Amino acid sequence: MKFKVLSRSNKEHTKDVASEVGKVHRNLDPRLHPMERQVEYQRALQAVKLDRMFAKPFVAAFEGHLDSVHCLAKDPTNLSLMLSGGCDGEVRLWNMQKKELCHKVSAHKGFVTGMVTAPDGAAYFSAGSDKAVRLWDIEGSRQMDQHGEARPLAEYLGDRPFSSIDHHCEKSMFCTAGGNLELWDVTRQRPITTFNWGIDQVTACRFNKVETDLILCTMSDRSICVYDTRVEQATQKMVLPMKSNNVCWNPMEPMTFAVANEDHNIYQFDARKMDKAQLVFVSHVAAVLDVDYAPTGKELVSGSFDNTVRLWKTDMCDGTSRDIYHTKRMRRVWTAKWSLDNNYVVTGSDDMNVRLWKSRASVPLKQLFFREKKKLEYSDKLRERFGEFDEIKKISKQRLIPKYIKTAQKKKRVITRSRQAKLRNQQGNTKRILEGPVLKRDCVVELAE
Predict the structure, then answer these.
(1) ∠ at Cα 269 (268, 271), nearest 5°?
(2) CA nearest 96: which of 350, 361, 362, 344?
(3) pTM (global) more than 0.85
(4) How far apart are CA 421 and CA 180, in angstroms?
């Protein structure tokens, strides 16, 4: 004779804390739950309402700069450290976890236009408008002279003011943008290679983290170039309708990069096929000043001249932002960086503040228990499953936006519709083939190889 016995271990029913709700066993047979879809819809509706109710993205503001915060730099070896450079010539090292200042350095006599941390995290480089690049100790203990003033570990002088800087992820080399794109060795005082395509100024430069010999740069003549240090020349060049302010490589897809442009848009390109943009992100109403990828490569953060910070998903087909951050005091956002742990966003703006935001506005900062994590994951899946329903979509997309942003968006929609109507009328009433891009992805004016 056989007997069926229920066997359950005490470990499964042990509570983490005394106030925790005990485990309940449920029969998942669909025949016993005929209203399962209706129940899950109500749960999804409740989840999206709670998500908007607890959406408080702002974490902290760091004050101390006497002028606009122009650039930020992450430490690849320490998640809690962040460098900020201002137009007052000062560089400050912040501990984001403790929310305090570690040390500050009067690095340049003019603007601090670019910063980058060495791959080992022991030092950082700062570039300024005073035609100098300086190397500083990250701890600040080895850079004080006998008078107690800051002294750099090394100094590199150029012929023109610098506008950007980036470090090679493997070799002791760095590149600078200014009058030309220059490649430097840390042990030498003069650049080892100078790249030049035309006479226009280079505004930004970035090393590829995987294909380490490729350098992506933007120029003041609206062009974007890809340079190869092995052949010491540019491999590709494309021209956009308006000037680009910054670029960033995707950390997970080595040949994909994003461009922050003056025409209020962010363009995502593939370096192997630069005749057309892969994606266009279109929610800003003023020039986009900076852009940065999340460590996962699936999201973007951007800072704009319209005083807002926007977060994007790279797999969204409509190109609209998933969230927008703003405050009453925050002005032009010159720089925005995504933290290496994928949980925070750091911005620097024209009101002399460095701000720390959550990358997901409604996620709590405290350490979550196992059941709390499972609850959040279940709520995310419910919102994803029922996200196309009108009621849920309306609540999830609702944001409190400043009035001047709404007014600018309305004007922008009117202008876009008028241009589209004009183009349709011209195409329907003329025999000749009209030139000009119809889609925003066809934004490349000229492509040279």
Answers:
(1) 150
(2) 344
(3) yes
(4) 43
pLDDT at 435 exceeding the cut of 60: no
State the sign of the Cα–Cα–Cα–Cα dihedral 95, 251, 318, 222: positive
In this prediction, residue 231 has a pLDDT band, given cuts at 50, 70 and 90, of confident
Give whole-number Cα distances, 223 to 134, 193, 202, 241, 307, in Å: 28, 21, 9, 9, 26
Residue identified by tokens 């129940």 is 39
pLDDT at 58: 94
Helices (H), ranges, 138-231: none
Report DSSP state, residue 390: H
Beta-carbon-side half-sphere exposure of residue 43 (alpha carbons within 13 Å): 16
The answer to whether the beta carbons of residues 277 and 287 sit under 8 Å apart is no
Which two structure tokens, joined as six digits, stand for 411?
């004007």
Average pLDDT over residues 42-58: 93
Angstrom CA distances, 287 to 284, 303, 310, stand at 8, 9, 13
Query: What integer is the mean pLDDT of 350-379?
Result: 91
Cβ pair 94, 380 in contact under 8 A: no
- Residue 62: how many CB atoms within 10 A of its CB? 22
Tokens linked to 137: 């100790």
Q: Is residue 202 within 8 Å of residue 214, measured between CB atoms? A: no
Question: Where is mean pLDDT largest: 7-11, 60-64, 136-140, 198-202?
Answer: 60-64
Residue 45 has pLDDT above 90, yes or no: yes
Tell me, rounded to whole angstroms, the distance of Cα 414 from its chain centroid: 29
Residues 172 and 180: their CA atoms lie apart, in Å, by: 20
Element (H, E) at 392: helix 390-397
Tokens of 339: 């933290």
- The answer to whether residues 69 and 352 touch, using CB atoms and an 8 Å cutoff, is yes
Q: Which two tokens stand for residue 416?
A: 């876009």
Q: What pLDDT score was predicted for residue 433?
A: 58
Decide if 281 contacts 265 (C-beta within 8 A). yes
pLDDT at 448 exceeding the cut of 70: no
Distances (CA, A) of 437 to 73, 122, 278, 424, 441: 37, 48, 15, 13, 8
The Cα 196–Cα 6 span in angstroms is: 77
The helix/strand/coil state of 182 is strand
Pairing of strands 266-270, 164-167: unpaired
Q: What are the pLDDT digits (tens) for 239-264?
A: 898 999 999 999 999 899 999 999 99
Residue 365 has a pLDDT of 87
